[in-house]
Design goal:
Distance between the termini: 22 Å
Helix content: 40-55%
Number of strands: 4
Strand content: 15-25%
Structural class: alpha/beta
Order of helices and strands: EHHEHHEHHE
């Protein structure tokens, strides 16, 4: 299971949201669960609550996805960087042929 946290899910995890915390816990106990935090989502979440990005990035079960050139090009075509980076990160890749699920909160 591959899951990309969008900026709302990152912010919720930083605030101790039970569902977000369960996702993080699953990545520690389930060998086939992978959790990703796009860099742009970390920035947006941290703007709302300083310290969130550092906290999420320090979690061993979370892989931070850099804004590389292909991601940057995809992001420039969207209105918000955080949403675009999460959508880009969820696309199928060699490592994730079925893509990933984007976790979000209302």
């Amino acid at each position: 299971m591959h899951i990309v946290l969008d900026e709302t899910a990152i912010a919720a995890a930083g605030q101790g949201n039970v569902l977000a915390s369960r996702l993080i816990h699953r990545t520690h106990v389930e060998p086939d669960w992978f959790l990703y935090a796009p860099a742009c989502g970390l920035v947006e979440a941290d703007r709302g609550r300083p310290g969130t990005a550092e906290h999420i990035a320090a979690l061993p079960g979370v892989t931070v996805l850099d804004l590389d050139v292909p991601a940057a090009l995809a992001v420039t075509q969207q209105e918000t960087w955080a949403v675009a980076h999460a959508q880009y990160a969820a696309q199928p890749t060699v490592d994730r042929p079925d893509g990933a699920i984007v976790a979000t909160t209302p």
